[in-house]
Write a structure and sequence with these properties.
The chain has about 140 residues and is an alpha+beta fold. The chain contains 4 helices and 3 strands; from the N terminus they run H-E-H-E-E-H-H. Helix 1 packs parallel to helix 3.
Amino acid sequence: MALFPVSPEKESQLLARMSNLSIAESDIAETFVRSGGHGGQNVNKTSTCVMLTHRPSGVQVKCQETRQQGLNRYLARKLLADKIEEQREGRRSALQQANEKIRRQKRRRSRRAKQRMLADKSANAVKKELRRRVSDD
């Protein structure tokens, strides 16, 4: 019997990953909340948003990516496994790495902009200096 509306291979991979991380279903508190945003009347009437809490570690995840509760349950467990793995192994997630990369690029860009601005200012200063010399004679 399938627990989630995904292929049996994906489901077995998730369950294997959870067992490797020693995440038991009995340790997970699952609650359902009404989603918000896109989905129209469906999300207003049904509780498709899934919130999971891993009791031993206190890690909480919330998933409302799709309009299907079953698929959100699967995705929430996947997110929970990611968070717990990240917490235990002390490594940053792909999302955090992507955010840090963007932050570094923005920082670099602003540094370049500052250099360009200073170069323009010095060029204008040279022009003004030349004007002053002519008027001082």
